[in-house]
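Discussion board: Methods & Data

I've been asked by a reviewer to show the raw model output for two of the constructs in my manuscript, not just the figures. I'm not sure how much to include, so I'm pasting the format here to get opinions. Each protein appears as its amino acid sequence followed by a line of discrete structure tokens. Is this the kind of thing reviewers expect to see in a supplement, or should I convert it first? Here is construct A:
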Amino acid sequence: MESTSTSSISPASLLRRQIATKDEIVVCPGVYDGLSARIALHAGFKSLYMTGSGTAVSRLGMPDIGLTTLNDMRDNAALISSLDPSVPLIADADTGYGGALMVGRTVAQYMRAGVAALHLEDQVVNKRCGHLRNKELVSEDEYMSRIKAAVNMRTKLDGDIVIIARTDALQVFGFDVALNRLKMAISLGADVAFLEGIRTLEEAERVCKELHPTPVLYNMVQGGVSPRLTVSEAQKIGFKIIIFPAIASRAAFLSITKSVQYLKETGDFPDETAHVGPASLYSVCGLDEAMEFDKAAGGKSYEGGI
């Protein structure tokens, strides 16, 4: 059951308030489906991040090498954002999935899906995960066309979505070129800067300093190329948003692998999962709320409980 929470404040406005809150950093666990999102919401997170990598591996069963389409990403974002509209969702939008017209369509569909923010990057359409090697980038002009198309569509629809400019130019062209791309994107109307593949603490500190007061996002990928930063460490450096895109998918990969291997070897399930009955799982996914809604409408299906 989707959340019954209502608010006159748009998801983008909620996120803008979080970003603007002094002495705080927006912390977003990466989620990739309804269950991972429900678990993060149950834990009390006030914002979420929909990972493109997690979407690729969960919805397609394929690696993050540019195989997901706009429809794959939009549908997943719409599902996640609908669970609790009071918790803003930042969603990966890859390259925008084409030229300026497709970027505009992507922005419009993400806005209609209730997404608070999206990030657009400067890789070629057949992109790959930002923490893999040998990435190919489009020209500066083509990247700026993507950002301008996103900003123009937001204006045309008279709505709001936070536009995050991501560049992967650091690995390909170096820090100065990457920084210049971000500065140009900001001048066109991007709200947040995202330097992908940061390699050192010095680069992390410099990008925050050079782009201040524009908010900068840090991508904390487990096992990736960037330095491992805690929330407090990232905040101290100057980042206003930190995402942990692989926090759920890596945990699921490890736990499911362990459980199915145990089943294969022993013919039984691991003891640590024995206490997790259906009610425990469904409770995190909104069971109590659904029962209360049914009761308020005069339903009697759950009078005896579950």
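Construct B, same format:
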Amino acid sequence: MRALCATDLSAASEATIENETCLDCLGRIGVRTVHLVTVVPGNVHAATPGVDFEARRRRGLDRYRAVIEAAGFDVETHVVRGTPHRRLNDIAETVHADLSVVGSRGRSPLENRVVGSTARNLARTTVVPLLVNRVERAVDDPDVRREHLFRRILFATDFSEHAARAFDAFSYLRHATDEATLVHVRSPKDEGAGGDAGTGPAERLAERARTLEEWGIETRTEVRRGDPAEEILAAEAAVTPSTVLVGSKGRSRVRRLLLGSVSGEIVARATGNVFLVPPPRAT
């Protein structure tokens, strides 16, 4: 597997890339090659007197390369120019990445509504599964919030094809997973909806749980009622998983500006990591 790791050479991205436990988790799910990518924003002029931004970025990537190679990975580095989330998606497609990793310090009051950060833009537009690695906020030398990326997973499902695609990620995540909590939220519009006999949400969760238990993953299930995003976040607070696993419906014109989807809310507001699985890439 190939992973794209995005970095702006900040303390937050350094915490993600240089954490030995996080690197070990990536190795356990099958990652063998890491593409380190940094993007020089298009509004930074290459001809700024006395400053060679691309050379500085390359020196920073070389430092990270040594750490990641020492952990046993093959490493390729990329310094590119343009809009960060667009260039990261371009490179992910070019190198046939299996997932992307980006560090995020989390939310601010403004970010709860208006999308501004690279992590939030990637969450709306990513072409491959995206791991948002949550980093401590408001400290000079931050660390990751959850070192073991996939040890304890909270999987949120509405039984859609998008959720089914996210569940399929367990086929490789399971190699680093010890425990899983499967959650379905019945919203008010679901109450009274019909369904086939014997296939209610509890039974459908139990069926998925049996699959994980056959893989040696200790699994529990929970059916909640209420607003999906709020209930999933409440479940995260109660369970404190390493990562919330959720499927995405993909891009829309509205979500290019505002985070309105359940998956967008989870990326924006979750305390720990989020693993977001998008629709398949167009061929």
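Answer (T.O., handling editor elsewhere):
This is acceptable in a supplement if you add a one-line summary per construct. For B, something like: The longest strand covers residues 33-41.
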